[in-house]
Amino acid sequence: MYSYHNNIDGEFDIGIIGGGASGIFSSIVAKDESDLSVAVFESEDRILKKVLKTGNGKCNLTNKDLCLSNFYGNPLILKSVFSKCPQSLTLNIFKNLGIRVVFDENGKCFPASYQASSIVDGLRFGASKRGVKIYAETEIVKIEKKDEKFLLRADNRYNFLCSKVIFSTGGLAGLKKKEENFFRVLKDLNVNIIKPFPTLVQLRLVETDPFKSMEGCKWECGVILNVDGKNTLVENGEILFTNYGISGNAILNISREAVKNLNENKKVKILIDLLPEMTDVEIKDELTFRIKRFGDYDLEFLFNGWINKRIGVIFLKSLGFNMNDKINVLTEKDVEKIINNIHSFTFTVANHNGFLNAQVMAGGVSVDDVDFETLQHKRIKGLYFAGEILDIDGKSGGYNLQWAWSSGYVSAFYAVKSF
Hints:
Elements: E1 10-17, H1 21-33, E2 38-41, H2 49-53, E3 62-63, E4 71-72, H3 75-84, H4 87-96, E5 101-103, E6 108-111, H5 116-129, E7 133-135, E8 140-146, E9 149-154, E10 159-167, H6 179-182, H7 184-188, E11 193-199, E12 203-205, E13 218-227, E14 230-241, E15 245-247, H8 249-263, E16 268-273, H9 280-293, H10 309-318, H11 332-342, E17 345-352, H12 354-357, E18 360-365, E19 383-385, E20 393-394, H13 399-417
Parallel strand pairs: 1-2, 1-10, 2-7, 10-19
Antiparallel strand pairs: 3-6, 4-20, 5-6, 8-9, 9-10, 11-18, 12-15, 12-17, 13-14, 13-16, 14-15, 16-17
């Protein structure tokens, strides 16, 4: 028997550090696959708090299009994990938790109730009914290997002994916690960490750009990421101008590369294609019609019923046009100027809104140190990883939650199998 056994507050076959999406999903899978004892240790006052906020409170739990191009990270580990827990298996598990799902026209999947609380309750009651022990307000601050088992020391002075550990603490997104404190437990174990940075995050623009004049304006458009003068990435979707810069799904989906390049001190610009569905010829025809039909109207009317009015006006002002002029003052040269710039309304990125406002963390535990089949650490046997803590992340649209479910399944399945 262990000499420190009297100081143990709980002993379990599988200890799961982190009560978020991947952690609770792991606990349910572990109990479904075995009669082993399972405990979840969560630093917050309750589990699954982040899940409540996903999908604007509706929980976009996966996406019909799981093409690997929607993810960032080693494609081999993605292929391995998704082959073992495909979307069909994920949805079947949720069905058995009482969750019916629906897909929208964009392929996003939601609970039929369109309430994130449905997912939270399904997972919470599912874990409880299976006998998973939940320790809330219990942050694990140190892990020690003791005779082939893991001694977990919590900040509330509790100590737990676990045969296997699944590390699923999520990431820094939405937290005020400092990076060095967040990764301290893993660094003490000499686990290799890829430097993290926020993704799916809003971008701050330079103050001299006219974004504040468009605050609150939304527009479906094309967004081009320009780095050091070269166009590197294109995304279509909604943008939203704010009092600090720019947001919206299209911006969130290019934010990863924007932040990465900002961190490398590169010049990052956003080029907005206001009319991505129209060719230059079609735009010229429409402008010619409007000049003839509305020639005696003020220039601010030029894009009326075509482009968001405020965005259209600010775009024209950025090109040096006077809104007090009449539309019929536009020359052929002016029309060409509008056409040459309407696909590249340019803004300069100054910064981003940081981890606290980000949806996801890029970086984390290096997948090079993890077995792709089992998600077990190659050197520290019995230590598994799941979810956002691994250096895998996806675009907005349910991809990150699908990674959480699938990686949670794989880590639990192989942790159980190792007994």
